[in-house]
């Protein structure tokens, strides 16, 4: 079990969004405020890690012919738990994310890691894979939230940071955020779906360019 390699794969070389291009719908739809991105990211980390552990533990007794159906049942169970917890304790986040929490059941990241990794590896390795892949997904969400919120509304930390009575971090979605510049000067298109496409496209292009440069450097060093 190579923890360092798993960490690098999850965040960079095999990032589920930037490299594998999975989970694109939720990535573009909910990244309009930091509160949404952090909440969705943490939800996916919990669900992905729990599903990986469960599927890895059962991998030797799951019939091959119905494995995908069993994966979906396991995922649906954990998604339901997280969805109910959010509705009970963080209703603002549940309302903000809307249908995208239940849709985690068919999120390609969860099913993909179950099939590609958890079904073939130990519980410990699968748990780390879930955590690191989830962190990679969350990192992309946070970056997109920061860019879109700043350029679109001129603010930072919407829903999570409250500065009305001193600086404090809140988890109920009521934070006003930090206003960097007046909202009327923001590019409102960034808060629309097309803004999600533009932001994600630019981030993917940058990461692929950097990965390409890294590959060329490694090949050059090997040749020398």
Task: Give the overall pLDDT as a whole number.
Answer: 90
Radius of gyration: 19 Å
Tally the structural domains: 1
| Number of strand segments | 4
Number of helices: 8
**What structural category characterises the helix and strand content?**
mainly alpha
**What is the helix fraction of residues, given as a range?**
55-70%
Gap between N and C termini: 31 Å
**H/E series:** HHHHHHHEEEEH
Describe the largest sheet: 2 strands, antiparallel
- Portion of residues in beta strands equals under 5%
Strand order of the largest sheet: 1-4
Name the overall outline: globular
Regions with pLDDT < 50 over 5+ consecutive residues?
A: none
List keywords for this structure.
mainly alpha, 65% helix, two-stranded antiparallel sheet, 4% strand, 224 residues
Short summary of the structure?
Helix content is 65%, strand content 4%.
Structure report:
There is one protein chain. The chain has 224 residues and is mostly helical. It has one domain (3-223). It has helices spanning 3-13, 24-29, 34-58, 67-89, 91-97, 108-118, 123-153, 193-223, and strands at 155-156, 161-162, 168-169, 178-179. The strands form two sheets. The chain has a two-stranded antiparallel sheet. The radius of gyration is 19 Å and the shape is globular. The model has no long low-confidence stretch (mean pLDDT 90).
SSE layout and pairing:
Layout: H1 3-13, H2 24-29, H3 34-58, H4 67-89, H5 91-97, H6 108-118, H7 123-153, E1 155-156, E2 161-162, E3 168-169, E4 178-179, H8 193-223
Antiparallel strand pairs: 1-4, 2-3
